[in-house]
Amino acid sequence: MDAASLLRGNHKKGNIILSTVSGVGTTKDELIRLFDRSIPSVDIITTKSFQVTPNPGNREPIVCSPSPGNFGNSVGLRNPGMDVILPEIKALREDGLRAILNISLSASNPEDFITLVKAFDPYADMLELNFSCPHAAAGFGASIGNDAEIASSYVEAICKAYPERKALLIIKLTPNVPDIGTIAKAVIDKGADGIAAINTVGPKLYIEPHSEKPILNNKLGGKGGASGEWVREEALSCISAIRKAIGDEPIILGMGGVTRPEDARAMIEAGADSVGIGSALSRVNPQKWEDYFNAMKRGGDVSSLLTDDLPLQYTPHTVISKEMHKDVMILTITGSMDCKAGEFVFLWIPGKGEKPFSVAVNDPLTFLIKKRGAFTEALFELEPGDEVYTRGLSGKPMVYRKSAKALLIGGGTGSAVLPLIGDMLKKDGTEMDIRVGVVERENGKEPLEDVLSTYGKVMFVADDGKPGRVLDTITAEDVAGDTACYIVGPGKMMQKAAEILSSLGVADDSIYLSMEKNTMCGIGMCGECVCGGHLPCKEGTFFTWKTLKENKAEL
């Protein structure tokens, strides 16, 4: 069934048609394929918003939670740009999709929207134009949707420039206007097929209570859109007003605060033809997403699938010491955690940003940090007595097979994870052989050398111009007998190590790799960390070589 036949008039039929929403869940090719293949209760898959040119978006933090079930966010339309994403979208369509594909587009002028519509129209069932993002740069998002005349002129220009369009044209509107119905009618009258509503409410300012500083990091002074349960009533009110203004024929994609089956039913009754689920996904284990959507469609109980225990609160700490090793620093701060291998935390400096880091030592909290960009430079500038914050734990303790022996291989700052693996295996009485690759040897001891030596035999191997030289030291004798292998480091180094170990006879399900992908939200909302259809920020960073190969994960 095509999109128009499925959706048009469904608010009268009362069917629960479910959709993902832009920016949550189905943000990457891997996740789109996962939802299409494994979650049949999702009828419509919506992409993140794409632009003509790449947009790095806002720096982290990009999400916060002032209260359970309620969120503030400020991603800032982060996307790789049209030229990068078009081949992926084309491949998705060529491989075949079960679900209706709704491609979200963002621009600051009619000409760029026309370019995007022409480019993506051959592959889309629906094209959703973002006239609504409350924390986008000037000229984007709500800058367009706030004004009926501007919004309708954009739609008119697009429809005139590209009359052969086959995909439905959907306009996503902001609720942050006095009369959303008037704006909806204006864009429908100029040729739009439907409305998507609502986008996030706001922007609002979110203050972290300990520091009394804004959490979100953007050019709006930390203001971000509000999503989650606290916007549900406003969403229902907006949808009702839109339906009254545009009549029964145009399509309405409803969204905003939908968490439980009764919310979905209320949205249909208010006039929506489909129901989008966004922020609530962060409250559900990704391995239970299929169960959740099934229950949402059929009216089942979802209470056991939802959690309010999300790692979004900050804890203040004081810097105890920092130990410099060329471009690497060992940062020790007050406090302790019970972090396990597979888990991680975010370090946050108000006004500077946050990034995820592995905990090297739990008590006192110790981190191995390499200078890579603006935020790590800010960490390097910290002095004893300065304040820094942690958020977490994110991830999940790894599941592993106990073995008599273990080979631990680390590369670069990946060695920060090795002590937690050592703690885990030491309790099992496992004999450990630890190999760490470094760019060049230090005159004195290597970072964490004293800590690692407490777990077993330790060897540091300098690259000496050949990255990954440490892998040349691995022999069949090293992995003979009942041996499991744990690899932490850059992706290509881990892949090569896994291939070597597999060729030496180590079973693929006894080779564990730490997939520490780019992680931004830490709660399974943004999808940035996806790895072979899994989300390390929710499911843990360690996966077997067998799992990664089966899921064709990119290392």
From TrEMBL:
Q: Which GO terms describe its cellular component?
A: cytoplasm
Q: Which InterPro entries match?
A: Aldolase_TIM (IPR013785), Dihydroorotate_DH_cat (IPR005720), FAD-bd_FR_type (IPR017927), FNR_nucleotide-bd (IPR039261), PyrK_electron_transfer (IPR050353), Riboflavin_synthase-like_b-brl (IPR017938)
Per UniProt, the keywords (alphabetical) are: Oxidoreductase
Q: Name one GO molecular function term.
A: oxidoreductase activity, acting on the CH-CH group of donors
The segment(s) forming the FAD-binding FR-type domain are 312-419
Q: One Pfam family for this entry, by name?
A: DHO_dh
Its name, as the record gives it, is Dihydroorotate dehydrogenase
Q: Which organism is it from?
A: Candidatus Ornithospirochaeta stercoravium
